[in-house]
Amino acid sequence: MNDTYLDHNATTALDRRVLDVMLPWLLEQAGNPTSRHTFGRTARNAIEHARTQVAEACGAHASQVIFTASGTESNNFAIKGISANLTHKRVLLSTIEHPCVARPAATLQAQGFAIERIDVDYNGKLNKAQLKTQLKKPAGLISVMLANNETGGIQDIAQIGELVKQAGALMHTDAVQGLGKLPLHFNSLNVHAMTISSHKVHGPQGAAALILDKRVDIQPLLHGGGQEKGLRSGTENIAAIVGFGMACELAMTNLAHFSSHTAALRDRLEQGLMQLNATRTSITIFGKTTARLPNTSFFAVDGIEGETLVMALDRAGFAVASGSACSSDSTEPSHVLLAMGVSEDLARGAIRVSFGTNNTLQQVDDFLATLTQEISRLKQLTSIAA
Ligand code: PLP
Description:
By secondary structure, the chain is of the alpha/beta class. Helices cover about 40% and strands about 15% of the residues. The chain has 11 helices and 12 strands.
């Protein structure tokens, strides 16, 4: 079957050039970076080279890069590790954070922390006026994601970070969906910590980073041999880190093309959806009028369950997501859409298409044709059942 992958916000395939630099570290090349012999030093150099590549991809200094094993780990590390040393035990989060930010924050309540939500508007934009009011009381840590994995909506992180800085609090941003899709400049974002992950940019799973301002006092999650300046013990996953470095370098070279190419695909898709809208099918595209990732379109077909449509499209050869891939085992409607004020019914209809550089205009046209067919087939089924 000629399957078409349209789920790049969930994960991406490994780039062959990334595999090539990883292979020696998976096969013949032994060496623990903490060992003093030549093998160990070679491994250490490979990791330091990857650190520079990662730093360059996000406008940071190599010394600010702490390698971890996943975006989930980096977010847990930022939320729990920074909170552990805070004087003001008050943490503010947007209502649309990924569960790997929201859940670690929720665990802090048992330690006496106040966890407060910052609302978003119908387009998913953070309510800055509300944040300003919240910041009038002393706060310790604020976490607002840079780009949402479902809607693709982008926040004004530098402006939000400035407000947080003026209030004397610390700021973390989850930039997992921003890497490789937008220019990232850690040192001009007014944040103290930023999460990125390898497998979203054609790197391997098992590597990620927390970019950290060195002045931030953070507690490690893992204690042991003292790797990563004592902040993340455990023998480094050299192959994955080397692959992450290469993936970052390639993502930077490809950034302008990624942006223009996937935006063209997304615009073609959304033009097609609007044409469908002119027929008797009602389609809502979420966050369309706000700054979004170029590759992401999140929409709902009125009267059809997103899950049902995703399965039907899958049988027809198209991989898309319903709501967030990371919570796809749950049948709850997207918390992001509910936070934006979308009704539960409409939210249940949501499906996400996220393009990559290898997708083509022809695939978009084929997808639209299949989507049209599947919508009318499912509508007929629902009207027969009714
Ligand atoms: N943050 C966001 C916004 C994500 O989209 C994801 C994964 O989908 C993560 C964090 C978790 O990253 P990882 O899959 O590397 O654990």
